[in-house]
Amino acid sequence: MNKLRKFLVVGVMVITAIVTAFGGMAPRSAQASASAGDLIKMSGLSSVYYLASDGKRYVFPNEATYMSWYSNFNGVVTIPATELQSYALGGNVVMRAGTKLVKITTDPKVYVVEPNGVLRGISNEAQAAALFGTNWSKRVVDVSDAFFTNYTIGAALTNGYIPAGSLVKNTSGADIFYYDGTNFRLIANEAAFNANRFAWGDIITAGSMVSAGGATITSAEFVNVAQNGGASVVITGSGLMVSLNAATPVASSVPKGAVNVPYTKLNFTAANDGPVTINSISFTRTGLGSASDFSNVYLYYGATRLTSGRTVNNSTNKVTFTGLNFTVAAGQTSTLTLTADTLVGTNNAFGIAMASDVMSTGANVTGSFPVTGNIMNTVDVTTGG
Q: Which helix (H) or strand (E) holds 23?
């Protein structure tokens, strides 16, 4: 891999507001027709928009949001008023994931931003420093109350969790990775880094060694400023209810060394006002056994496995499935099944301990928690092939 070379772009910008900045920029060309992916403005007006693939224009609410996506204003296209008016307003652009931390002007709570404007609350200063260093507060920007509604609130960050959308490197080594919520995808070279408009100053150092997973990033993949815009605008439902499925496995004996044994079936029901996308789920192991009783735990939707196998954390007894991007249709119920490969042990059960263990796109998660399956007793027997 070509080693990524850090470079420094020094510029002097005296900008008191994004309106002033847009008024003083040099447009790419005047009276030019625009295409999807362009930054556009109308001659005589200072507002700049992102033209998405859905044919709509998305407005940058402030300078900080614009600068999280672009380093300058050189690519802005000036178009005729008639053309600008032909593009319907699609919404406001949200802060790019993995760049700034945000807070509302009337509340000191600080959040990291994940893709599509999902916010994850930071619990304390120690957690912030562990992720972003002792100067973490310099990343924080205020979002006005009026624009805070463009974001959705997800589950609070847990210690050691790296937010999706982050640029990550190990303490030693030049490799840079993009964490997509499941895999740490290697960025092939400087050209790929620049093609995605990543910024060197946004790279964080992992607290523990990370390894490359998933496809290597070789071209522009993360440049859709509209995010939830594009082919269609995502409407998010307001509620998600979790319950035990009637067909959850009954308490029984499980042979040691058995593979893909069903432990728990759970129903996820979306409210009638819109679909709900589940981003991650944490299951908690209970019973007299231990985390080491299992080699791998899996999550299925019907016959489809949603992620790779995960291990149970020895200290928390939790197993977390991230990067699910699993959508429950409005007013519908989807059933997910947790299975496991057994090693040794006595008895174990799996379930969701609390509502905050389900991270979704802003929906209010409800249920009679904990929602837990039946105890399975692992026994040392010989089974047929």
A: helix 18-23
Using CA atoms, how far apart are residues 288 and 263, in angstroms rounded to an integer? 15
Nearest to 136 by CA among 128, 146, 144: 128
- Distance, in Å, from the CA atom of 184 to the CA atom of 154, rounded to the nearest integer, reads 21
Distances (CA, A) of 380 to 133, 261, 343, 347: 49, 15, 10, 12
| Mean pLDDT, the chain, integer | 84
Name the amino acid, one letter, at 337.
T
**Band (25; pLDDT cuts 50, 70, 90):** very low
- Quote the distance between the C-alpha of residue 235 and its chain's center: 17
pTM of the model: 0.55
59-85 pLDDT per residue, tens: 888 889 999 999 998 989 999 988 888
Residue with tokens 């399956």: 373
- In 3D space, the residue among 325, 347, 327, 350 whose CA is nearest the CA of residue 339 turns out to be 350
DSSP secondary structure, 201-227, as one string: GGEEE-SS-----SPPB-S--S--TTT
CA-wise closest residue to 213 among 169, 182, 192, 173: 182
Three-state secondary structure call for residue 139:
helix
| pLDDT tens digits, one per residue of 337-382 | 999 999 887 799 999 999 989 988 767 888 899 999 999 998 877 6
Identify residue 61 by its one-letter amino acid code: P
Number of H helices, E strands in the chain: 6, 28
- In degrees and rounded to multiples of 5, residue 23 shows phi and psi of -70, -25
- Say how many C-beta atoms besides its own lie within 10 A of residue 111's C-beta: 25
Count the Cβ atoms, other than its own, within 10 Å of residue 361. Answer: 23
User: Which helix (H) or strand (E) element contains residue 19?
Assistant: helix 18-23
Q: Residue 221 has what pLDDT?
A: 92
Residues in CB range of 111: below 8 A, 6 or more apart: 101, 102, 103, 119, 120, 121, 122, 151, 153
| Total length of the chain | 385
The predicted pLDDT at position 17 comes to: 36
